[in-house]
Amino acid sequence: GDLRVAVLGVGVMGQDHARRLSTRTAGARLVAVSDVDAARTRAVADEFGVRAVHDPFAAITDPDVDAVVIATPGFAHEEQVLACLEHGVPVLCEKPLTTSAETSLRIVRAERELGQQLVQVGFMRRFDAEYQQLRALVASGELGRPLFLHCIHRNASIPPHFTSEMLVLDSVVHEVDAARYLLGEEITAVTVLRPRASSEAPEGLQDPQFVLLETAGGALVDVEVFVNARYGYEVRTELVAERGTAQIGLGVDLVRRSAAGWGGSIPRDFRERFGAAYDTEVQRWVDAVRRGTVDGPSAWDGYAAAAVCAAGVESLRTGRRVEVDLS
Ligand code: ISE
C-alpha cells in the first residue's frame, strides 16, 4: 500500500511538503501533521483532511505512520531524528540536519550502529536539473580543474525569528552542500566577513554576510548571503575552471517585451525556484523508502555541512578563519 507519512512542523516548508505529499507524490499518503502551534496544526490538518497530532514523538511512534518528514526548526531536529532512528522510522529531515557538528555526528553514529540507513537530508538542490548539469560538467573534466565557485544566495525576506547565526546555519548550509556536491571535495576552512548591514534588515541582524569556503583540493568558494534583498529570491552559481566558466540560476528561460519594457520574472521564494527539485526529492525519497533504502543526501552529508556551518558561526562571532575537521 501507500507509504503513510506524517509531517512534523507545518510552517512554510512543512505546509509545502504536506501539499506535495497530498497531491503530487505517487505511492505516498499524508496521514498526520504536527506542530508546536496547536491552532496551526488544526488548520493544516483540516485543510488536508488528516490527523492533527500535537506531540511530534507521538507521531513518530504511531503504528499508522510509516515514515516522517521533519520540517521543524533546526534546533528541534536532533531529538526528532534520533527518535526516528530509535523506532526504525525512515525520515526525510529538512536542512540543517542539526545546528552543531557534535549533534549531527551523534546521528551519524546512531544510524551506523543500527546498520540501516534511515536518514535523508533535505538538500533539494541535488535534485535540481541545473545543479545536476553543472556537477556532470565538472566531473567530465572538460573545463579542467575547478578554481572558484562564486555563489549568490538572496532571499526577499525572512521570518521574524531569523538570527545572524541562521544566515549561516539555514541559508549558507545549502551552498556548503552544493559545493561538496558540485566539486566532490570537503570544505576545510571557513571565514565569515561582516559588511555593513542593510538598513532594510531588522535591527541587529548581520545581513548580508560574505562567506569564504576553502576546499581540501585548494579551490575557493565565495558566498554572498543576503536574506532581506527585498526584490525576490535569487540563487546563482558561477564555476570558474581552468579552461572555461559555467553559470546556473540565471533564470532567463522567458524574456518578454511589453508595455515599453522587457524582461523576465524573479521567483518570490524557494518554493517557486526549487519547486520541481522538491517534487523530485520527495518522490525519490518515497520510492526509495518503499524499497527499504535511501536515495539522496545522507546523514553523513548532513553532518559534513553542519560541521562547516558550526565553524562558520564561530567565524561570524570571532571574525577569524576557522578550520573544519571531520571525524
Ligand atoms: C530557507 O530556510 C531555505 O532553506 C531556503 O532554501 C534558503 O534559500 C533560505 O535562505 C532559507 O531561509
UniProtKB/TrEMBL annotation:
<feature type="domain" description="Gfo/Idh/MocA-like oxidoreductase N-terminal">
    <location>
        <begin position="3"/>
        <end position="123"/>
    </location>
</feature>
<feature type="domain" description="GFO/IDH/MocA-like oxidoreductase">
    <location>
        <begin position="131"/>
        <end position="246"/>
    </location>
</feature>
<dbReference type="InterPro" id="IPR000683">
    <property type="entry name" value="Gfo/Idh/MocA-like_OxRdtase_N"/>
</dbReference>
<keyword id="KW-0520">NAD</keyword>
<dbReference type="GO" id="GO:0019310">
    <property type="term" value="P:inositol catabolic process"/>
</dbReference>
<protein>
    <recommendedName>
        <fullName>Inositol 2-dehydrogenase</fullName>
        <ecNumber>1.1.1.18</ecNumber>
    </recommendedName>
</protein>
<dbReference type="InterPro" id="IPR055170">
    <property type="entry name" value="GFO_IDH_MocA-like_dom"/>
</dbReference>
<comment type="subunit">
    <text>Homotetramer.</text>
</comment>
<comment type="function">
    <text>Involved in the oxidation of myo-inositol (MI) to 2-keto-myo-inositol (2KMI or 2-inosose).</text>
</comment>
<dbReference type="Pfam" id="PF01408">
    <property type="entry name" value="GFO_IDH_MocA"/>
</dbReference>
<dbReference type="InterPro" id="IPR050424">
    <property type="entry name" value="Gfo-Idh-MocA_inositol_DH"/>
</dbReference>
<dbReference type="GO" id="GO:0000166">
    <property type="term" value="F:nucleotide binding"/>
</dbReference>
<dbReference type="InterPro" id="IPR023794">
    <property type="entry name" value="MI/DCI_dehydrogenase"/>
</dbReference>
<comment type="similarity">
    <text>Belongs to the Gfo/Idh/MocA family.</text>
</comment>
<dbReference type="GO" id="GO:0050112">
    <property type="term" value="F:inositol 2-dehydrogenase (NAD+) activity"/>
</dbReference>
<dbReference type="InterPro" id="IPR036291">
    <property type="entry name" value="NAD(P)-bd_dom_sf"/>
</dbReference>
<dbReference type="Pfam" id="PF22725">
    <property type="entry name" value="GFO_IDH_MocA_C3"/>
</dbReference>
<keyword id="KW-0560">Oxidoreductase</keyword>
